Amino acid sequence: MPICRFAFVAALVAAGPGCAQVSPPHATPKRPMNHLARETSPYLLSHRHNPVDWYPWGAEALAKAKRENKPIFLSIGYSACHWCHVMERESFENAAIAKRMNELFVNIKVDREERPDLDEIYMAAVLQLNDGHGGWPMSVWLTPDLKPFAGGTYFPPEDAHGRRGFKGYIELIGKAWQERRAELQGHGDKLAAFLVRSLGRPAQKGKLDASFQKAARAESQGRWDAQLGGFGSATSGFRPKFPHASELSMLLRHHARHRDSDKDSLAHVERTLEHMRRGGIHDQLGGGFHRYSVDREWLVPHFEKMLYDNALLVQIYLEAHLLTGKSVYRQVAATTLDYLLREMQDPAGGFYSATDADSEGVEGKFFVWSKRETDALLGDDAAPFAAVYGITEQGNWHEMPGQTVLSIQKSEAEVAVATGVDAEALGRRLAAARQKLLAVRAKRVAPHTDDKVLAAWNGMAIAALARGYQVTGEVRYLDGARRAAGFVLEQMRDPKGRLLRTWRRGTAKLQAYLEDHAFVADGLLHLFECDFDPRWLAAAKDLLDAMHAHFRDPKAGDFWFTADDHEQLLARSKSVQEGSIPSGAAVAIQAFARGGMLLADPKLTDVARTALEANHGYLSRYPSYVMSMLEPVDLLLHDPKEVVLIANDLAAAETRAFLEVLRRRFPVGHVITVVHPGNRERLLALVPAHRGKEMRQGRCTAYVCRFGTCLEPVTRPQDVRLD
Questions:
Q1: CATH match of 639-723 with 1.10.10
Q2: pLDDT, tens digit, for every residue of 586-632?
Q3: Does the 7-199 domain belong in CATH 3.40.30.10?
Q4: Residue 507 forms beta bridges with which residues?
């Protein structure tokens, strides 16, 4: 995206660091509360006692700005954002600064995870104002008609190091609004017009091409760290390092399609997954992954844990297991899923959003260990444990000298050889040591949990659990997916049946976005392929219908980020570029493609193909921006199939034998339905194309089909032909 500069605004802007985490909501009920007191977001509630007269985004605040003709100061952050917490402590808790903010502006605080629509619009503005630099907390000033004219990220409270502090900056903005209002409004008009054009860009249509994946691989190859895995820039020392799950998935698929000519892609993915699982970014005791590594080695993480990172990485490790057969990848996926079930699932069934990095005001304190502590706790097992997990007297965590972030520095086999101990016995001792330390850690002051439940992120968790069950056979993952899916469908819809974005402690609210519909639909389709309950397929169809009716652009064939009856904002976006998670557009396309196959409805799959063709410009010129969109491209270009099993009993050995073969194929170019006496009536009403398919010779029978046109049925798993 080109960078546009606006002269006056550029002179005002001072961008700051990105973000990471925030402390839990204040527990000081005697302090006065502002207008955030009635919110449900833990992030917004953490600001309810600020002397800043914060409002949530809504009619009351927007009307006040127009009535008083004041600029809006819009501050956007999220619960796990470190610099959000710093700016709150330094500026928003400062009574003198808050007083001037209240006098000069209408102050609005937004949780970006609740309102990604606002975050996208105004982050795009901040990026234009700051030569492509942005981050959180986002600080942006708007005219009363919501047009941005100045902005940045974190501001220190006072002038320092040649940078204007927040105290001086708000005075500058206030003076400019009084003396140069027309000029600011003019700059806001120009920037708003740019945002409307760029966020709602016209479609650039073209045909699908297998070269998209090849081009994406070439771009990826230019950014990967061949030594330690991962992606980044050599000039920055390949740090920090983020997981880039979509990119790893693309490389696995590219290798699978070009096994003879592309060995590098698999080698790079394996190197990345291996270093990640051994590093401190992987919670060696509790399972799951932290947000990112601050160093090249994946050793020291930023300690927050996000639901979406873990859901996405589960699927990557499972895919790597399917492709290579290596059990270690399945084990990492399993411990990550166990972490989600143990620590992140609400009793009602939904999954929480994140846990913070800090506890007791210190980042990472909950997760690190001193040698003295582990020696005292583990006794004779302390030395081999320290050898494996890198525990030393000096430690490796700069925030707390003498404390160690656990990482696998030596394999158990290496330590067994060095100490002359039986490897199997050592493995059992170390497993017991991990459980002992985990139990001790559980008694520490834990990081704050952002316990709001987001529909989109729960869709990811449902898909991860469903895939976990399909690959491992562990029923607890299926049970967890069912509970989460039931929760979303029962608790996160409005009286008209429309999906809602967020839920917390009994209250669901905010109209859902494209990504919510897409991820939940995708999760439900994966769940249907686990237990073949028509409830999940019917619910997914409802979400596909809603996306078609309210989010699809009928002229271009692609998707809007917000519904046609959404609150009218400054711009309406067609968001395809990925951030930390796949774009809603990419997942919607995947859901339409797979949903059309499972429902034997080619019209739905045509929606997916048309949407991909509408994004030809991105796919052909900027494939690395839309990595997740390459997955449905790969699916549709390789003649996907529907496999329909007709069985007497879902639990029968012959049915399980078919499923075992079908679920172990990678890349997945097919969908699976099992019709059996328990679901037959409801399923045939939903998918009439399955009528007439019967068992042969009283045995479980497989039909390999393409939208209802099927090959000759077979009764042996080895006879199923998907190529």
A1: no
A2: 999 999 999 999 999 999 999 999 999 999 999 999 999 999 999 99
A3: yes
A4: 504
Q: Using an 8 Å Cβ cutoff, are 8 and 30 in contact?
A: no
Contacts (Cβ under 8 Å, ≥6 apart) of 89: none
Which tens digits make up the pLDDT trace of 288-297? 999 999 999 9
pLDDT at 542 over 80: yes
Q: Where are the beta strands (DSSP E) in 127-205?
A: 138-142, 148-152
* Tokens found for residue 579: 């951030």
Q: Which secondary-structure segment (H or E) carries 119?
A: helix 116-129
User: 3-class SS at 670?
Assistant: strand
pTM for the predicted model, two decimal places: 0.94
Distances in Å between the Cα of 2 and the Cα atoms of 107, 127, 131, 140 are 30, 10, 9, 20
Tens-digit pLDDT profile for residues 504-528 = 999 999 999 999 999 999 999 999 9
Q: Is the pLDDT of residue 12 over 80?
A: no
**Where in 325-458 does DSSP place strands (E)?**
354-355, 358-359, 362-363, 369-370, 403-404, 449-450, 453-454
pLDDT in tens, 187-238: 999 999 999 999 998 778 999 999 999 999 999 999 999 999 999 999 999 9
Structural domain boundaries of the chain?
7-199, 367-443, 639-723
Is it true that 7-199 and 639-723 share their CATH fold? yes
Q: Pick from 581, 721, 593: which is nearest to 661 by CA?
A: 721
Bridge partners of 500, per DSSP, are 511
CA dihedral defined by 39, 41, 43, 48, rounded to 10 degrees? 20
Q: Give the pairing type, strands 369-370 and 670-675.
A: unpaired
Contact predicate 540/518, CB 8 Å: no
